[in-house]
Amino acid sequence: MKIVPMRDLKDTVKIESMCIGKNEPVFVTKNGYGRLVVMDIEYFESIMRQAYEAKLLKEGMDSIAEGKHSDSETVKERFKEKYGF
Q: Which domain holds residue 5?
């Protein structure tokens, strides 16, 4: 984890080189406190994709816990009943 003071944001080439290809954000501080996070866009997209996938998994697990699912055999039977196959 990289931590840089706000004044270092002036050196955009340095900040960019710290972010490119790294799998971690750069934390920017102001007066000793965390203020901003800068990261490579590929890393950001990866994190957002993981968050979206985790959300979908949670929704699926909640659905199972609430009994809002059916096994494949039940689905096949319902399909046969509805469409006569």
A: 1-39
Q: Is 22 exposed, middle or buried (0-12, 13-18, 19+ CB in 10 A)?
A: middle
Pairing of strands 26-30, 2-5: parallel
- Is 33 part of any domain? yes
Residue 84 lies inside a defined structural domain of this protein: no
Q: What is the pLDDT of residues 38-62, one digit of tens each?
A: 999 999 999 999 999 999 999 989 9
Question: What is the sign, positive or negative, of the torsion defined by CA atoms of 54, 57, 61, 66?
Answer: positive
Distance CA 25, CA 44 (A): 9
Alpha-carbon gap, residue 75 to 4, rounded angstroms = 56
Answering whether pTM is above 0.90, one says no
